[in-house]
Amino acid sequence: MTHFGDPFAEQKLLAAGEGWVALPDRAVLVLRGGDRVTWLDSLTSQRISPGVSTQALILDPNGHVEYDLHVVDTGEATWLIVDAATVDDLRTYLDRMRFLADVAVDDVSGEHDVVWVPRREQYAQLPTWLVPAEYAGVGTTEAGEDRGGTAEKYVPVRPDHLIGAEVVFPRGERPAGPECGTWALNALRIAAGVPVVGTDTDHKSLPHELGLIGPAVHLAKGCYRGQETVARLHNMGRPPRRLVLLHFDGALPDPGAEVHVGDRTVGRVGSVAQHHELGPIGLAVIKRSTPVDAALSVDGIDASQEPVVAAL
């Protein structure tokens, strides 16, 4: 459900660490077999370890973001919480990459529901993906470094915190407390500058542009598809675009609308929401060279930007 009558009250409830949100747009894959952890580690941008919750990406050969994986290893199986719109393509890709590895890939979405809880804590006996420490404001993800420095150069300060977890429940079961809608969660996520792959990205999106170096990309990890582009851009280049939080003047544009400086197109809006304190806000990826104080417009609506990713 998008809301249950009062999205602002639901936002305040979630911000206070209460309530929960059903996530019908999430699907669940399970990996089993003795090679599952090392095999998945070889395919993804972040280090995968037994018994650990991780965000990881699968990139295309040119380093563009294809899939976002919320990884939970329980010691017996590895659970992947993923976008339901791309789960079939993702499963096909994973099956194709198994070769002789001792790995089985199963789609168990029909037997499970994914629920957001606004507390960053493990649910007993249930696969629980904890939001990365950077998003929650409780530290940093171990991400190594390279000649271009550490991941901290991309997002010096996040605009707000997103505290919570995605929990895989058996179909039909729910946590205690009041249910809140997805509008409330999206408003808090946008305010924290956390992008959603698919909604806030396109076929050219690079992890550097989105603030995903660190939370989802390890700089000292090699030998996965797209890694050469990640390293080359980090060490010798600058991302061509950057993620920003937009504050709109009085109204919300449609997702996908172009961002303009005068008559020049400089980017595209992704997620938008009405926030209970900030008003109408959204995430956009704009050209790196766009001045931070530039007067922006989207669908005729004036907007100002709050950088999420630095203009390196």
Question: Could you say which structural class the secondary elements and strand pairing correspond to?
Answer: alpha+beta
Query: Order of strands across the widest beta sheet?
Result: 11-14-13-12-15-16
Q: What is the mean predicted local confidence, pLDDT?
A: 97
Question: What is the element string, with H for helices and E for strands?
Answer: HEEHEEEHEEEHEEHHHEEEEEE
> How many strands, which pairing sense, and closed or not: the largest β-sheet?
6 strands, antiparallel, barrel
Outline:
globular
- Highest CATH level, the class of the largest domain: Alpha Beta
Oligomeric state, counting identical vs distinct chains: single chain
> What CATH architecture label of the largest domain applies?
2-Layer Sandwich
CATH superfamily of the largest domain: Probable tRNA modification gtpase trme, domain 1
Helix content: 10-25%
β-sheet strand percentage: 25-35%
What's the domain count? 2
